[in-house]
Amino acid sequence: MGLAVTRAIEDLSLVDHACVIPDSDEHLWEVTAAWVANGLDAGDRVVYFEDDTADLVLRRLNEDHTCVRHALEEGQLVIVPTEATRAALAGSIESIGDILVGQIDETAADGWPGLRLAGESGPGLMRDGGLEKIVAFEQLAERLFRGHPTASLLCRYDRRYFGDSAVEAMRRVHEIELVSPAVYDDTLLRITHSGPAAVRLAGEVDHSNRLQIRRMLDATLDAALRSHSAPTDITLDLASLRFIDVAGAVGLVHAAEEFPSTHRLVLTGVRPRVVRVLDRCGAPFADQLVVVAADA
Amino acid sequence: MEIKNTRTPPPRLAHVGGFHSSDHDLLQQLLPLVTSGLEHGRPVAAALRPATMEAVYDTFGSLPGLLLLAPPEGNDGGSGQTLAARRARQLRELTLTAGPVTVVTEHWNRFDGLDGSFWTELDAAMNIALSDLPVHLTCFFPEMPLHLEVVDGARRNHPQLLHRGEPRHNPDYRAPREVLADRPAPAPVLLGAPDTRMVFGAWQLNDVRTTVERALLAHGYGRDRAEDVVLAVNEVATNAVEHGTGEALISVWEAADGFVFEVQDAGSLRDPLPGLRAPHPSEARGRGVWIARQLCDSLHVWPGRTGTHVRMRATP
Prior knowledge:
Distance between the termini of chain B: 54 Å
Number of helices of chain B: 9
Shape of chain B: elongated
Largest sheet of chain A: 7 strands, parallel
Structural class of chain B: alpha/beta
Strand content of chain A: 15-25%
Helix content of chain B: 25-40%
Oligomer: heterodimer
C-alpha cells in the first residue's frame, strides 16, 4: 500500500471519500450543510444519518437559504432517524456494509444520478467498538467509495470525541480532507469571509471573545475602507449568530457610528433574538447601521 | 408673544422631603402640591396610602390621567432598588409624552420591615434612577415613625425639605453612594437549597446560558421570554466575572411561576446600585445591568460578607 497523501480541497463535487475535522460545532454544521446543498444542487440523492442532529443541520441549511422542503418531500434528501442510525452502527462491519451498498443500489434503482452520504458515525462507532471498529469502518468505506463514479461519503472526526492521535490517524486514512478556512474560530464563534467587504458570523458573541471580534472586525472594515473597489456597504451576515451580549451589540452600534459618512454597516439575516438586543442598544438611532432581520 | 429661553437646561429631578404631624397636617401640605401641578397642566403621579388617596379623590374628583406608581411588594417592602427602577420606568414613559410630572408619595409603616431601612434604600435608589427625569417628587414622612431610621434616611436622601409649604435646601442631604455606604442595601430573605449551582468564569458564560435557557424552556417559558431572561442573567454573570475575581457562582431556583437566580462574586461594588441610571448612548459600559433590570421582575444587588450578590426574579 502506498503512502497516503492527504489532499486538502474545497470543491465538494470532486470528493469520493473524504473526512472533515471540524474546528467547532458551527464549522461542522457549515460543512455538513454545504455537503447536503451541493449534492441537492447536483441533482444527487443525499442521505444523512442523524444522531439528534437533524435539527441543527436543517437550521443551518435554512440560514444558508437552501430550501430542502421539496427535496424532503421528493425523497431526494433522506434523513435516517437517530434510532436507525444507532442501530445500524451497533451492528457488525458486514451489516454496516450491507446498509451502505443497499443505499447505493436503491439510489441507482430509483434513477438518481448519484448518492452523497454523511452522518454522525464517529461517536456511535466509538461507543460500540472503539477505535478498532472505526478503522474497520474506514477500510470498508475506502473499499466501497474510493473511485466510485457516483457515490460519495463524508466522514467527520470531532476533537470532542477523539484524541489528537486518533484524529491524526483518521486524517491519514482519508486521501481527501475537506477544509474551509475561517478568519476566526474559538469554538464559540466562527467568522468566515463571505465576499468582498463581507463576513459571516456563526455562533455566539460574549465577554470571552468580544475583544478579538472587535479587533478582527476593525481589520476587515479597515481593509474594505482602504480599497477603492470595495463596496461602501460593509456586510456582516448574522444569519447564524445565535447570541450577542449587550456589550457586543453596543460595539456594533459604535463601530457603525465611527464609520466615515460614505460607508454603512449592514447586518443581514439577523435572528429575532439578536434584533431585540440591538434594539435595546440604540441600533435604531444609528444612521449608518442597517439591520435586516431574518425572514420569519 | 411668548418668549422662550432656549438656554434653560433641561429640568432634572427635584426630590423634596416633607414631615407631617398628623393625617390632617399631611393633607394640608400635600393637596396644594397636587393643585399646583394641575394648574401648571402637569400630570400627577402618586403612591399614597388608601386613606390619603381617598382624600385626594374627594378634593379633585376622579383625576383623569393620574398615574398610580407601583406599590412596594410584600410586607417588608422588598427591594427598594427594584421599586425605584419600576417607578423610574413608569415615569420615564410618562415624561416622554407629557413632559414634567408632579409626583407625591408617602411613607407607609406596613412596609417598614424589621427596621424601616427599606425607605432609605428606596429614596437613595430614586435619587439615582430618576436623576435625568423632569420630575418634581415630594415624599412625606411622619415626624414620629415607629422606626427612627425612616426619619434619618429621609433627612439624608432629600436635597430639599418642605418648610411651611416651600422647599428649602437641606444641609443633611448626602449623595446616594454615601447613604448606601452607611446603610447598604439589605440581604433578601433566605431561600432553600437551589435546584442548580454552578461555578463559572469568563469562558463558561455560554454554559451558564445553555443551562438557564434549557431550564426555562422546560418550565414552559415562551421562547422570546426565555431568551430575554437568558440575556439578563448573562449580563449579571458577565459583570461578576468582569469586576469580580474571575470566578463566580450562580444558583438557580426553578419554578413555573418565576425563576430566581442569584449570582455572587468576591468583588466589591464600584457602584453600590448598578444599572439604575439610564445609560448614555455613548457609554459602552453600565448598560448590561440596566437592561437586566428592565427584563427582570426584580433585581436586587447587595454587598455580602464575602463579596457582591445579585438576586433576580423573572416570571414567564
